[in-house]
Amino acid sequence: MSxxxxxxxxxxxxxxxIYVVAGHLFAAFLYxxxxxxxx
Length: 39
Prior knowledge:
The protein has helices spanning 2-7, 10-38. By secondary structure, the protein is mainly α.
């Protein structure tokens, strides 16, 4: 695991985590939209 951390800068890991969190929040928002629209 330390080899990967040395090859990839911390900025890439931070950006990856932000993209994953933002993607899940967007998906949850769309899911709630469709659930509210179905009622």
